[in-house]
Each structure stands twice: as C-alpha cells, then as structure tokens.
Amino acid sequence: MASARPTGAEHATLVLASVLAVLIVTLRAVSDGIVEMGDGVQHYLQARYCWAHPELLLDLWGKPLFLLLASPFAQLGHPGMAAFNAVVTIATCWTAARLLRDAGRFAQLAFPLLLAAAPLYVLMAIGGMTEVLFGALTLLVLRALMGERWVAAAILASLTPFSRPEYVAFLPAVIAWIALRKQWRALPWCFTGWAVYAVVAWRVFGDPLWFWTHGPYKAGASVYGSGDLLQFVRNAPGIFGVPVLVLFLSALLIWPWVHRKDAGYRQVHRLMGLAAAGPVLLAFAIHSYIWWKGIQASAGLARVLVTVVPLAAVFGLHTWGRLMALRPWPRFAGIAAGTAWLVVLAYAGLATLQAMLHGPLQRSGDQQALDDAGDALRNAWSPDGVVYSTHPYAAFRAGLDPFDDAHYRPLWGLNDQRPADFFRPGELIFWDSQLGPNEARLPLDTLLDDPHFAVRGVWEPRQGHTVFGDRPYELFLFERKEAVRTMRVDTLVALDGRAWAQHVRLDTVACPADVRRAWCFGEGEYPLHVERMALPEGVGVIYDEIVLRARIVRAPTPPGTFELVFKQAGGGRDLRYDQIDLTGDTLD
User: Residues near 252 by Cβ (< 8 Å), separated by ≥ 6?
Assistant: First the structure.
C-alpha cells in the first residue's frame, strides 16, 4: 500500500475538485429556477421537511441515506441541494485520487476533468439528485476494499440500497470480492444497512420487511410503458461524456493484456474489473432490459446511469495509467498523449458548459407553465383548504408543506372510487398529463366529464410536446364544486367543396398521369396551409380544443416526412408551437 500522506497530485486534484464544486454552485445560482422539476424537487421537499416529519427519513423513494445527509443543506432552500452535491463531488474526486495513486499523476488530475465533461453528471449535481451520492459511495467502498479494510467496506456497501436502486449491480460484486478473498467474517456486515433499517421500520411501521413490502419499484408492468432495448446504449455519449465513454470502452479492450503483464498489480486489476467495470456493464444491462420489458417502474430515464459514471472513469484511468507505467515510454509520446487528453477534456468541458448555459439551465416552457399554475394554486388555496396534486412542483411553487396531510395530499390513485365521492367540496386538484393518468390513474376526461368539478385554470408550455401515452403536456387546476360546463363545436375548416372562410392554401404540383382525383405535393412543401383561424369566442371560455380529422395516404416512397404543425401567435409574438411527426403510409 502507498503512504497515507497526501501527494502533490492529490492536493492538485482537490483544487480541481473544488473548482468543479464552485462551478456546480455557480451554475445553480445563475440558472433561472429549478433544473429538475420532478424527482429533484421531490427529493428537496423530502429533505427540507424531514425534520418536521421524521418518518420521511425511511422513505424509499427519497432514498433514506440521501435524505439524512442532505437534510441540513436543504434547510437553506433548494440551492442548498446543489451545495450538498458539490461537497459530495469533492469527496468523490478526493477518493478517486487516492484510488488512482498507482495509475500516475495524470490519471489523478484527469478524474475531476472527466466528471466536468460528463453532461448529465453535472446536471444531476446542480439539480440536487441522488445519483451523485451513490457514485461517491461506490468509490469509498472500492477504496476500502483496495486497502483491505473488509468490515468498513462491507458496512459502506450495505448502505448502497438506501442511496440508489443501482445497488443491485454493485453490492453483489462487493460480496463476491469479499468471498473470493475468503474474508468470511466480513460478509455478514454487508447486511448491516438492511438490519438497521428493519429494526427502525419495525418500531415505526410495525413491519421489519418494509424495505421489501413497500419498495417503490414494484414488479410487473410499468405505468410508463416500454421502449427500445438499445436506448441507453445510444444515449451513452450524453450520459458519460465522450471522454469517459471512449476511455472506459478502450480500457475494457486492453484490460486482459494489462492484467496479464502487470503482475504486481494483478489483484487490483481484478478488483477493478469485478467491482468497477462489472457494475457499469450490469447497470447498463439491467436498465436496458427493464425499460425494454416495461417493468419495475422504469421510465427509460438516461440519468439513472449517472450513478456509475465515477466507476467508469476510475476503471478507465486506472487501466490506462497502469499500461503507461508498465515500461518506459518515449518522453515525447507521454507529452503528446497528455496534451491530446487535456485538449479533448477541455473541449468536452467547454462544450458541456455551453450546452448547459444555453439549454437546461434556462427556464423551460414546461417550468414556466408549472410556475404559472403553481402561482394560481397559491392564490386559490386558503389556510383551511386541501390540495390534491399529481406533481411535486405544485407544492414547491405554492410554498406548501407537501407532507402536511391536513392541507396537502399527493394523488396516487383513487382506489376505484368515483372522483366525486373521493374529493370533498372546496378541495383543489392540481392535475398534470404526465403523472395524472399514470401514478394517479386519473384520466383527464374523468374530471372534465364530471359536472362536480369546475376548471379553475389551464396551462400549457409555449413549445408544445407530448408525454407518456402520446398525451399533450398540459396542466389543469380543478375545484370540487358543482359546475355548469357547456361545450360549443365549430367547424373551422372543411375541405368538402364548400367555400373556405379561412385563408387556406394548397401547394400542389402536377400529379402523374396514373393518379387522378388527388392532390400531389413536392418535396419540402406544405400541402395544406391554413392561416388566421378564428378561435371560438364567448364569455367564460376557459380553453379551446382543436380536433383534426383526416385521412392521409402517401406514396410508398414519399419525397419527405409529414408533420402536423400548429402555431399560435398574438401581440407580435409566438404564443405556442406544436409539431407532430406523422408516420405510416395511411393515417386516419
């Protein structure tokens, strides 16, 4: 083992890690609002209010270890979550520097730069997400294993189930390594976390198996549907960053040769292969499979693999670092390789920073709609009222304690009750199309078709898009009270031979001789262009719904793609824009 005294490279790594931490906090400070409006806000709310509601510290969705450690920072407000992750990032880089001592100074110094060049890692840190803590914990376990501190490694590994569900890819590798080294006395300590949690859950809930009986990732079909088996593979560059991805994949290729030739470090290479590279590959495989099958509450989110970014970086840097140390390389070769890596890392870091400053850190249309809806909720709520919500951002924006059952209740399903029987008069329902039909199992039509619910407001992002189930993203605020709702149907455009009241244009070209009684269109044209559609007018109109019914048949080899575009403008600016790609040869 190397000396415990920090080296100059480790001090320099700490400086780079501190710079990265300052960058995280600064980006959070200059960003216009919340970066992660779903789970990020939910984790903050749980960490913020767990002192008032201690049972939240056992909440498996919020990740008990994360909530416990982040709660002091959450008392500072949502920016405190970014500060917590900044501290965790420093700890991650410091631990990596200690792990990479035998890989050389360049490997130690490169680690913070690799994290900075991983787009989603930085975004998760800014958003106060749980993935960053899990990455730090895995490196702490690796360091303890490398130092043969078996009990400490086992206890630390036992905490991973309470930081992220990706423990299923990491904890078995730790247990396997301890068993391979025949450290039988340390093995029971791998279950310390579960034992402590079982005792506490038994005292609080009366159920020592709470971790298993009330886990948020239930077996069976996911409410989010399913997707492509290779989705995570295609998204890998955006998750890991190109430098980390190239480094990791190339290290996998050279690892067998380095393991064979580097006899003095063979044991360390085996540890890195089993407990660093193995969990990265297994996490990829597990998430790809469950999203493909649509099970275990998988939503196909790319961010879940941020958990293994530090492991991938450490494995790649250690393998390449030991390769460079195997024999004396020409001086110019080392200088050239180091310079090339620094250029790549600097470019990737700047590209990541630019993308964040011009993308996710700006207030999105979704967030603006949520802000407006949350403000309306705050104005509509009375101190003696009750709010039901399908979105955690509603409580955040409205300034409500989401765990105070007397005034706020999350909507997770009606248990087959009629909505009119479930809600009491005067109660407010904040409904969003992403979570409402899924977690709440409450379709929009159920509320709109019920005369016992009044619509208090409707909000949509300026850049329209669809969410799970191809539903348009929209927000509704309802009040449980008797309402008289009328609907008026107008025909705005009808292509049935009648005179058009709107400004309609058909861009057509000559049809082939064998095509009759049809319109033919050239590449890049807009076959049907309707302008200045007069929206229905009337007193008390809350929202308008435009329904398009058409049958479109296109040739087997179309000149281009078909899109349905809706653009709304007023007051000299664009108000809304939606674009839907139309696929298939025949569309109804």
Answer: 277
DSSP string of 337-373, one letter each residue? HHHHHHHHHHHHHHHHHHHHHTTTTSPPHHHHHHHHH
d(CA 207, CA 529): 63
Q: What is the pLDDT of residues 541-573, one digit of tens each?
A: 677 777 776 666 665 555 556 777 878 777 777
pLDDT digits (tens, 9 = 90+) for 27-52: 777 665 655 667 888 899 999 999 99
- DSSP, collapsed to helix, strand or coil, labels residue 475 as strand
The distance of Cα 98 from the centroid of its chain, to the nearest Å, equals: 30
pTM listed for this prediction: 0.82
For 90-116, b/e burial (b = at least 16 CB within 10 A) is bbbbbbbbbbbbbbbbbbbbbbbbbbb
Residue with token string 């909720």: 377
Cβ-contact 436, 549 below 8 angstroms: no
List pLDDT tens digits, range 367-418.
888 889 999 999 999 888 899 998 888 888 888 899 998 899 888 777 667 8
Residue 240 makes CB contacts below 8 A (sequence gap 6+) with: 118, 248, 305, 309, 312
Q: Terminus-to-terminus CA distance in the chain, angstroms?
A: 70
Tokens in use for 494?
């009808």
Give ∠ CA 261-253-270 in degrees, rounded to 5: 55
Can you read off the two tokens belonging to residue 303?
């961010």
Show the tokens assigned to 502: 């709107």
Rounded to whole angstroms, how far apart are CA atoms 61 and 305?
17
Residue 96 amino acid letter: A
Q: Which amino acid is at 19?
A: V
Residue 72: partners with Cβ closer than 8 Å, 6 or more residues away? none
Structure tokens at 362: 């700006």
d(CA 584, CA 552): 10
Phi then psi for residue 477, to 5 deg, are -120, 115
Q: Torsions phi, psi of 504, nearest 5?
A: -110, 135
